[in-house]
Design a protein that fits this description.
Blueprint (H helix, E strand, L loop, with lengths): L4 E5 L3 H12 L3 E5 L24 H4 L3 H13 L3 E4 L2 E8 L4 E7 L8 E5 L3 E4 L3 E3 L12 E3 H11 L6 E6 L4 H10 L3 E7 L3 H9 L11 H14 L3 E4 L1 E7 L6 E6 L12 E4 L2 E5 L2 E3 L2 H5 L23 E3 L9 H15 L3 H4 L8 H24 L14 E3 L4 E2 H11 L4 H8 L12 H7 L29 H5 L31
Parallel strand pairs: 1-2, 1-7, 2-3, 7-18, 9-16, 10-11, 10-16, 11-12
Antiparallel strand pairs: 4-5, 5-6, 8-17, 13-14, 14-15, 19-20
Helix pairs in contact: 1-3, 1-9, 4-5, 5-7, 6-11, 9-11, 12-13
Length: about 500
């Protein structure tokens, strides 16, 4: 009997954990990541010439030892094929699974290798990216997402500026500020939009529930100590509501906000700065999940059962796709997803109980992390008053240079909150990023963020995550596609017709 084949997309905490669990359960695993290194955004690190890492990496990363252990096991496992610079650009649904189209090679290079994979099981661990709410001046050079600032600090040891203001919402602001300090930047202040009352409600409710996250106290203490040593002010109930400058950031406006995040009149003050790092939480990367017809919840996460299985046949999901809960939750969910994706008995006996001790530990960790995720949203989740930051000339879609006034006028002219109509009229979200940055913002501004189902797939049409091409692809790459008869018929499953352009993944055994 041949081994079960599992493809894991994404080599961050969830993907690495899923690959290890699936290989341990006996499957042949192909782990794909679009980056040229594993670790995802959480463990993005500096790679020295020759492939080594800097001796100070542990000071930039929480859980560095966990990462190196996972990386070494996965990279050295005989049943795991690890492919970096491997971009999944299309996913086709089959009767009993999915087919992946992959380009292997540097993203900016021509002549990338085509790879077609039709696994027995697919684990999606594609993670999330920063969500940044727009404000006047956010298009100026010197304004970056907190994630971009963190990536530059970790991978390049580069500070985004000399005098930096960090603002937004969520605990992620703390490690970002700490990383900037380590690169030599002067962090002027950190501004958390959540009010003290919201923080108390989110983190203070049911104190006994925090016992499962007690280990995070040391991590929090380390960040607080770093800010205190450098005399960095941490202020809650405040938001960055505007940036000004001639060709780049020169000053920022900070204001107190109420419980809805509406600025309190008369509290505005100006701070001189040359860089701003902003993050208002994270948005899951749903393109592959939507293409696979996974059900999406009203709050825009992939719906999974207690085995991390989605509603799409043969597809599992783990990590930030299923809820923003941090690296520990991603590791636990990844292990559960990988273990069950590798087990053929999942389909034959869905009520079977595994005696795998590692699986049991992962399930317990997942339960603790779920409580943390709920508290995170309750304390730091985006409130509706942020829209009062915007002026009519504030850019919403930077690709197409659509401002808030134009967007609202388009919604008024079409007499509709239909997102497609507003986008076609205003061009918001039709630029190179294909609404990855502005999509949720546009939907909220025109009142199109409802949970109606899309084409029976369970996906919510309010945010445009449905894209036939998941990522931008060179026309030259499309022109060199192998002559594949299955491409025009996504339901083709004739076993007598082999996958054209496919190859046997390296490192697999018969």
């Amino acid at each position: 009997m041949s081994r079960r084949t599992v493809v894991v997309v994404g080599a961050g905490p969830a993907g690495l954990s899923a690959a290890r669990a699936a290989a341990r359960a006996g499957a042949d695993v192909t782990l794909l990541d679009a980056s040229d290194q594993v670790g995802g955004q959480f463990w993005r690190h500096r790679v020295l010439p020759g492939g080594g890492t800097s001796p100070d990496e542990a000071s930039f990363h929480h859980g560095w030892g966990t990462f190196t252990a996972l990386r070494d096991v996965v990279a050295g496992h005989p049943r795991v094929t690890l492919l970096t610079s491997a971009q999944v650009w299309a996913l086709e649904r089959l009767d009993d699974g999915v087919r992946l189209r992959v380009l292997v090679g540097p993203a900016d290079a021509g002549g990338r290798e085509h790879l077609t994979l039709t696994p027995d099981a697919l684990v999606l661990a594609t993670g999330a990216h920063d969500r940044t709410l727009p404000f006047p001046g956010w298009q100026l050079p010197g304004v970056t997402t907190a994630g971009a600032a963190q990536a530059l600090a970790k991978a390049e040891r580069v500070a985004v500026g000399d005098r930096v203001v960090v603002a937004g919402a969520g605990p992620f602001l703390l490690p970002v500020a700490t990383s900037l300090l380590r690169t030599g930047a002067r962090v002027l202040s950190v501004h958390e939009a959540a009010t003290p009352a919201a923080l108390v409600r989110g983190w203070g409710a049911r104190p006994a529930g925090l016992l499962g996250a007690a280990h995070k106290t040391g991590e929090l203490g380390g960040y607080a100590a770093a800010l205190a040593r450098h005399r960095v002010a941490y202020r809650v109930g405040e938001a960055l509501v505007a940036v000004r400058g001639d060709g780049r950031v020169e000053e920022v406006t900070i204001a107190r906000v109420d419980a809805r995040w509406s600025p309190v009149p008369g509290t505005e003050r100006t701070v001189a700065a040359d860089a701003v790092c902003v993050s208002h939480g994270f948005t899951p990367r749903l393109e592959l999940a939507v293409a696979a017809a996974c059900a999406i919840s009203p709050d825009r996460f992939v719906v999974v059962d207690d085995r991390q299985r989605t509603t799409a046949p043969g597809v599992w999901a783990a990590g930030e796709l299923t809820g923003i809960g941090g690296a520990e939750a991603a590791l636990a969910e990844g292990w559960v997803a990988g273990h069950h994706a590798a087990s053929p008995s999942d389909d034959a006996a869905p009520d079977a109980v595994s005696d795998d001790a590692a699986l049991a530990r992962a399930v317990r960790r997942r339960g603790r992390s779920a409580d943390f995720a709920r508290r995170l949203e309750a304390a730091h989740g985006i409130r509706s008053g942020w829209t009062s930051w915007l002026r009519d000339d504030t850019l919403v879609c930077r690709c197409e240079e659509v401002d808030a006034g134009t967007l609202r006028a388009a919604a008024c002219a079409t007499a509709s909150t239909d997102l497609r109509s507003v986008r076609l009229t205003s061009r918001a979200g039709l630029g190179p990023c294909q609404a990855r940055i502005c999509g949720r913002t546009v939907a909220e501004l025109v009142g199109a963020a409802g949970p109606a189902a899309d084409e029976g797939t369970g996906a919510t049409p309010a945010v445009p995550d449905r894209r036939p091409l998941v990522v931008p692809v060179r026309l030259g790459d499309l022109a060199t596609l192998p002559d594949d008869p299955t491409w025009s018929d996504p339901t083709h499953t004739d076993p007598s017709r082999p996958e054209v352009g496919a190859r046997e993944p390296r490192g697999h055994t018969a």
